[in-house]
Design goal:
The protein is mainly alpha-helical. It is built from two helices and no strands.
């Protein structure tokens, strides 16, 4: 049971850090002087990269918890 609690604590801490980083990026992004089409493109790319990073972290943690994770997110057993 302690392994599951450790994974949940790690998940909460990771999501808190990701949330603070997301908030900081969203606050600082309008300070960069870009023309409107480029600003929209940068916002979309930042969103896509952020979502991919969060999904990757979640899938890696699920792999450590013993859940079968497909594709490139598979994490081998640590011995």
């Amino acid at each position: 049971m302690s392994g599951a609690i450790g994974i949940l604590v790690s998940l909460i801490v990771t999501l808190l850090i990701a949330g603070v980083a997301w908030w900081a990026i969203q606050q600082l992004l309008p300070l960069i002087p870009l023309a409107e089409p480029f600003a929209t493109l940068v916002r979309v790319l930042v969103t896509v990269v952020g979502v991919l990073i969060v999904l990757w972290v979640l899938l890696v943690m699920l792999g450590y918890a013993g859940v079968s994770v497909p594709g490139p997110f598979r994490v081998g057993k640590l011995t």
